[in-house]
């Protein structure tokens, strides 16, 4: 990677909490970035990991990255958004690139991001859910479910103007103008809407696609979707929408397994047998109906987080 004594072209920002193995995989992928990539620094914002800041710093040091690396303590407020905000304030790069600590950027990812930001204020890429690198086993039901239903960035961008913070690049000046990610909301959707409202151009860039390691158990899937539904309700209310439209949305979520069951049963997910397919179908029903229950519970609670 091209070295520079001046400020780096990019600051790569990774929020982290209690996933040292995932962080090590992500840093290993960053170590394989193309040598022609723009000069960059890496900031790992640790969000109160139980192992402690020193353990996170050891993982970062062991990666042997050819770029400056900083591990900062972002544990004051729990949430990936606050961690990203703190790292962005410490960043020295002319552009910011946000990924998660379980992402696998390919070698040309940062080159594609730099080319995109030469034309657009904000750029994002597809997020493709994959098994851990080098995995020789078959997918577990939770992993297969995540591979089939975890992310649909193209649909989200076309329908809602959404680019995910798991794969988002933005000029640093634009980020400062738009402002921080807001906690306890769907932070990437909220931020993208604010950026678009200010007239900044957002683009989905095919060359920026990266991998995202699949969640490997049903409890982690449930925790993710519980959070998503609580944040979605808060944003729904923040935008002045009522309970009737929320209930209509929940009705569509409840009915969605009828539409998506064929995908669970027949879509390609690598080597699979009918027991795996049955497990995915069971998760499809359980996750979607849990989302409905969480959405109803959130509706009965406070409308909007007080710190939004």
Q: So, CATH architecture of the largest domain? A: Alpha-Beta Complex
Order of helices and strands: EHEHEHEEHEEHHEHHEEHHH
Shape: globular
**Secondary structure tally, helices:** 11
Runs in which pLDDT lies below 50 for 5 or more consecutive residues are none
| Count of folded domains | 2
The biggest sheet amounts to: 7 strands, mixed
Report how far apart the termini are: 39 Å
Describe this structure in words.
It contains eleven helices and ten strands. The protein has two domains: 204 residues, Spore Coat Polysaccharide Biosynthesis Protein SpsA, Chain A (Alpha-Beta Complex); 83 residues. Strand 1, helix 1 and strand 2 form a beta-alpha-beta unit. Helix 9 packs parallel to helix 11. It is globular. The chain has a seven-stranded mixed sheet with strand order 3-2-1-4-8-6-9, with helices on both faces. A three-stranded mixed sheet has the order 5-10-7. Helix content is 48%, strand content 15%. The mean pLDDT is 93.
Short summary:
With 308 residues, this protein is an alpha/beta fold.
Fold blueprint:
Blueprint: E1 10-16, H1 20-30, E2 40-46, H2 53-62, E3 69-73, H3 80-90, E4 95-99, E5 103-104, H4 109-117, E6 122-124, E7 127-130, H5 141-149, H6 153-160, E8 167-171, H7 172-178, H8 187-197, E9 202-204, E10 210-213, H9 218-238, H10 243-266, H11 274-300
Parallel strand pairs: 1-2, 1-4, 2-3, 6-9, 7-10
Antiparallel strand pairs: 4-8, 5-10, 6-8
Helix pairs in contact: 1-2, 5-11, 9-11, 10-11
